[in-house]
Amino acid sequence: MTFKRIALCLFISQIIVSDSKTCCNHRNVRKFPDGFLFGSASASYQVEGGWNEDGKSENIWDHDTHQIPNLIADESTGDVADDSYHLYKRDVEMVRELGLDYYRFSLSWTRLLPTSFPDQINQAGVDYYNNLINELLKYNIKPMVTLFHWDLPQKLQEMGGWTNPHAVDWYGDYARIAFELFGDRVKHWITMNEPTQICYFGYGLDLLAPRLNIPGLGEYHCSKYLLLAHARAYHIYNEEFRASQEGTIFITLSAGWHLPESEKDTDATRIMQMFDLGIYAHPIFSKSGDWPLQLKEIIARKSAEQGFKRSRLPDFTPEEVEYLRGTSDLFGLNHYSTYYVSANETMVKNYEVPSRADDAGVHTYDLDAWKLSEFSSTKAYPLGFYQLLTHIREEYDNPSVFVTENGYGSYDLSLEDDDRVAYYRGYISAMLDAIDDSSDIIGYTAWCLMDNFEWSSGYTVRFGLYHVDHEDPQRPRTPRKSAFVFKEIVRSRALDLSYEPDMTVMAIDEGH
Ligand code: BGC
């Protein structure tokens, strides 16, 4: 072990131990509850490639990466990505090597429905997903399918995307086709991946496609119709498929955790958490349904002061509130990191008006001290994960939580990824603390199976348990140390902080 690695291990144990009063039980070996599920994940645009092959049409990421120079850090695209369109058997082999219970992947809408609508179903796309699903099932691995992980058909975007009320019908029609085609074998459906990133980053800002940058309006209109579209898919499944297919359907929300900079920032922190998570969780998971009341009040008041005739946050009708409430069998959660919040007026004064940032009226930041190495792109604060899981338990009546993403991004390409190992150990340990406290957490998904197209960062930031060489046309995948460590967690159904893997051979264990 090099000096750098030793320093890193000391550093991560300090992060974990310094918070040991409230979090993180540090017994060396900790068991998972019986029946707990482990998996890893990917998303269509990030791994498939084959962007225009066999009848697939253009989605918003194809469009933007082709049309806009300098959009992506390394000027790359997902045209080939990990070439999973051709290499899916190797992907399944890796899932087997890790001994996972399930593999989470997403469907590309334009691969299945090139016109965006069900008037034409692309048989090559159906074949691709059938092959992937059947390959998984052959080895007893459950497919967990995300219907929408950001790659909206470009044509639908040109018709307003998620701000068009008709998107509810478009998405419902697409979801029904997916249930009809694959629901005999897929028993875990995720409707939407991360509404916050879709609506805030894509409609309110220009950080992700479609980069509309219409602050204070775009994100809220997107939120309303995206949520209703989610509910449409849920009701379609419930009414037309659940009885015969007997699956589970849920939404995946992303949430950071927020800490007050000082005691006077407690309210600001609560408000920030509401803008980040509550805006989507409340309508579905709270008893009252609807947007969080305080959020409605803040945006309505600000809108009136700014001269708008009505709130920039569109209302739900009482029928829509009912239509949405309770439409998720599980609480899907993606979590990466924590932020400090302050009600710093000088910073807030400079926010664009109107905007979500101005509506929330808080300043957020994270700490460089949470970097695990000079290469970190994700900052590590495991206690935040524990606190977020506790918040969800207390706020939403202890729902069954499925962690659908958690993982560590780094600019370091190497295979000896001790910082990623430290991140996973810290966060999994924090999750076990929440389980000990009676949080009903039933599965954990490592993001991600292999390096892939990391959105605006292109291939500069890596999250993979497996390294992928994007310079090589064969796209070889090689396990990192984190893959070996995660495999042992899955095999032993326990977290052993002292486990040191032998990285010479990654093989499929018997029974996989
Ligand atoms: C997304 C993934 C992404 C990951 C890391 C999540 O927000 O669902 O697609 O790769 O974060 O940035």
Written account of the structure:
The protein is α/β, with parallel strands linked by helices. It has a single domain (3-496), classed as TIM Barrel (Alpha-Beta Barrel). The protein is 42% helix and 14% strand. It has 18 helices and 15 strands. The chain has helices spanning 3-18, 44-47, 60-67, 84-98, 109-112, 123-138, 154-158, 167-182, 195-204, 218-245, 266-285, 293-305, 318-324, 345-349, 356-360, 382-395, 418-436, 481-492, and strands at 29-31, 37-41, 102-106, 142-148, 188-193, 248-254, 257-260, 331-334, 338-342, 363-365, 401-406, 441-446, 466-468, 477-479, 494-496. The strands form four sheets. The chain has an eight-stranded parallel barrel with strand order 2-3-4-5-6-8-11-12, surrounded by five helices. A three-stranded mixed β-sheet has the order 7-9-10. Strand 11 (401-406), helix 17 and strand 12 form a beta-alpha-beta unit. The chain is globular, with a radius of gyration of 22 Å. It starts with a helix and ends in a 16-residue tail after the last strand. It binds beta-D-glucopyranose.
As laid out across the biggest beta sheet, the strand order is 2-3-4-5-6-8-11-12
Q: Provide the structure class.
A: alpha/beta
CATH class: Alpha Beta
Fraction of residues in β-strands: 5-15%
> What percent of the residues sit in helical stretches (DSSP H or I)?
40-55%
Provide the list of bound ligands, each named once. Answer: beta-D-glucopyranose
Based on the structure given, which CATH architecture is correct? Alpha-Beta Barrel
Measured distance between first and last alpha carbons: 32 Å
**Number of strand segments:** 15
Number of domains: 1
Protein name: Myrosinase 1-like
Pfam family, one: Glyco_hydro_1
Signal peptide: 1-20
Keywords: Glycosidase, Hydrolase, Signal
